[in-house]
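Sample intake sheet
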Amino acid sequence: MKLCTFQQRDSAPAVGLVVGEQVIAVAEHLSAAPVSMIGLITEWAAWREPLRKLRASGVAGIALDQVTLLAPVPRPGKILGIGLNYADHVEESGMDMPVDQLWFAMMNTAANGPFAPVDLPKVSDALDYEAEMVFIVGQRCRHLTAESAKQAIFGYCVGNDVSVRDWQLRTSQFILGKSFDTHAPFGPWIVTADDIEDPHQLGIRCFVNDEKRQDSNTSQLIFDCYEQIEHLSKVMTLEPGDVIFSGTPGGVGAAFKPARWLRKGDRVRVEIDGLSAIENVVRSEI
């Protein structure tokens, strides 16, 4: 299933079921269903089958081009990102292959829609892109085993871990450089895990103004998604709707000589096979 959060004109955000080129407003057909994505994920066991029946019903929806797609989880409880998780990105960064997983937090105010503008900050011009597969936590969990980690993932999205490199690298902690407002666009919807045969066999690409900058496959992840969630659960309670950025392949702007930073008006598109694509235009910070 494909699940989104959308808005139509000035109406409140709503949870939608994407079928073809249309979105079905869940609340209009399942009036008792949760009205937020986190609520729906939390109660997924109760709503999976009604949503499958709704998808198969043939009921008419709203054309996707008539709505605004928001971040599928508009304000996640947590956004976490792993660094140096593709071998070619490790090589271009000039760093040693990680033995342990390298994690940083991204503030939830960075969450952004799949087609919304991304800000060029007032305080930096070192703006970079990172194509990433994102996964969404599906249950409250702690101390997962390797066997249970797979079942704890609700679904997958396309993401761009937009990074302000000078702020990221001026200290040993990446949080500030990874947490600017608008810098965590993801979507365009969540593809539920049961619709993805293997999340570790998906092509991933990034284009800047139609120029291909990144081209890899999630099979190249150093620590796969199940290892990531198992590791995180040793430290903290993960909750439904938490958003995990799983790492970027080689080809980021910082690796070019000279660096190729994003500029106002640049259009950044990230595609992942089976998950669709997001596209964001850089604007000056308002």
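Comment: Residues 44-56 form the longest helix (13 residues). The two ends are 36 Å apart (CA to CA).
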